[in-house]
Amino acid sequence: MNCNFFRSTILVLFLVSLASISVKAQNSIGQNQDYRPITTAVPVLLVSPDARSAGMGDAGVATSPDVNAPYWNPAKLGFIESDLEVSLSYTPWLRNIVNDMSLVYLSGQKKLTPNSSIALSLLYFDLGEIVFSQTGNDFQPFNPKEYAVSLSYGQKLSENLSLGIGARFIRSNLAGNTNVVNATGNFESAPGNTASVDLGIYYTKDLALGGKNYNLALGGNISNVGGKISYTTAGRKDFLPTNLRLGTAFTMELDPYNKITLAVDGNKLLVPYAQSDDPAANDDTNVFSGIVKSFTDAPEGGSEELKEITVSTGLEYWYDNMFAARAGYFYENELKGGRQYFTMGLGIRYQKFGFDGAYMIPNEQNNPLAQTFRFTLHFRLDEAEQ
């Protein structure tokens, strides 16, 4: 296959991992300004899959538990109230660029004991059709796909504290099984397969102050800790997007019918930085060494390490636990990607059915993430009171 194969593959990787970067940050590259994002394989694992948290600026590690808890923090499963619940989320992805990319997230939860629950989830990413050109005028269409299957468990340890763990199988098929010829010789591309684990902790405390009821929740989650993934027989392997998420959620009951929650999450990728002039510098770094290295390897030291932290803030208002309105803001430093956007969302719960919708509003015009909608359907299948 000729160089068009590589252009097609690069296009796929660009759409997934870089299309979410703001136009302003892209312009800074053309102006020769410093621009140092951290890149990983399978970046879709960091995309918020459900509409509730997406409507709150992608905050979710400490919000009230629901069936989508496994993605944000498996420890929240220890406090979930429903006995059996299923949700289905759908996101048309990057519709300002292409019309055939989508993200689907299916999650189901079952209570095992009064203090524990188990959940099974599937994250499926369809990257649409691309064309690989071969020798001569022949063309080979291909539809890249990625998916991750997760099994999660949460256990309440006390009235206020729970722990959680998740195991995940990941398959990323960007180019299929294809023989490739380049300047260095022959090799074969292949789907990448690996596994990872998540570890979570969740704390919640009800408070009564001044005649009003409050709740303070704290959460932490380390996700996607797993083996590197390879797409070729050439031996090159890339890090998964191992991520540390810490956050809090504070809920105030205004009266028996109205309550409001403020949530704040901070995220840091636990992946070592690779300079653009030496992308293979971390090839010999293992996963755990990479996690340690990720705290000290920024070119500008501690000040740049702080710039690697993204911040998600969200507000959620509920009326009678039936109607919800949400808003949020996501911030990433321009040096590390520059994603900055507002979000808004609505939700409804009626008996055993629920619906959430979310919409993203990037700071800049012509941003690839503009007009991103997310939709989530909830189905509660137990006999618990609503």
Summarize the structure in words.
By secondary structure, this protein is mostly beta strands. It is 11% helix and 47% strand. The chain contains 6 helices and 18 strands. It has helices spanning 3-17, 23-30, 51-54, 69-72, 287-293, 302-307, and strands at 84-92, 102-113, 116-126, 130-133, 139-142, 145-156, 161-173, 178-182, 185-189, 192-209, 212-226, 243-255, 258-269, 310-319, 323-331, 340-350, 353-362, 373-380. Strands 1-2-3-6-7-10-11-12-13-14-15-16-17-18 form a 14-stranded antiparallel beta barrel. It has a two-stranded antiparallel ribbon with strand order 4-5. A two-stranded antiparallel ribbon has the order 8-9. The longest helix has 15 residues, at 3-17. The chain is globular and about 70 Å long. The relative contact order is 0.19. The model is unreliable at 1-32 (pLDDT under 50).
Write the layout of secondary structure elements.
Blueprint: H1 3-17, H2 23-30, H3 51-54, H4 69-72, E1 84-92, E2 102-113, E3 116-126, E4 130-133, E5 139-142, E6 145-156, E7 161-173, E8 178-182, E9 185-189, E10 192-209, E11 212-226, E12 243-255, E13 258-269, H5 287-293, H6 302-307, E14 310-319, E15 323-331, E16 340-350, E17 353-362, E18 373-380
Antiparallel strand pairs: 1-2, 1-18, 2-3, 3-6, 4-5, 6-7, 7-10, 8-9, 10-11, 11-12, 12-13, 13-14, 14-15, 15-16, 16-17, 17-18
